[in-house]
Amino acid sequence: MRIIKEHLGCLNDNPEKLWFKRKLYGWGWTPARPQGWLVILVYILLIIPFSLNISESSTRSEVILNFFLPILILTSVLILICYKKGEAPRWQWGDPNK
Hints:
Number of helices: 3
Helix content: 55-70%
Radius of gyration: 17 Å
Distance between the termini: 17 Å
Largest sheet: 2 strands, antiparallel
Strand order of the largest sheet: 1-3
Shape: elongated
């Protein structure tokens, strides 16, 4: 429960109105504004059709071209958006202000 309160407090401390805040534990980002959540939702909705195109009869090259390559591109775009609209990522363990 303490970790959730600490996380919510960190998200609410957002005077720059960043879409993504640095994670409190580990490396990466977490959505901090509705725009960030919308980016994550669009990312998931764009991945679903590529996932549904894969079947047991798909060849290796079909899987690479129709699944892995689009997912790699979408994930790269997501990381770029997080980097541009969020805090600089770094490894941390807990609130750095404490």
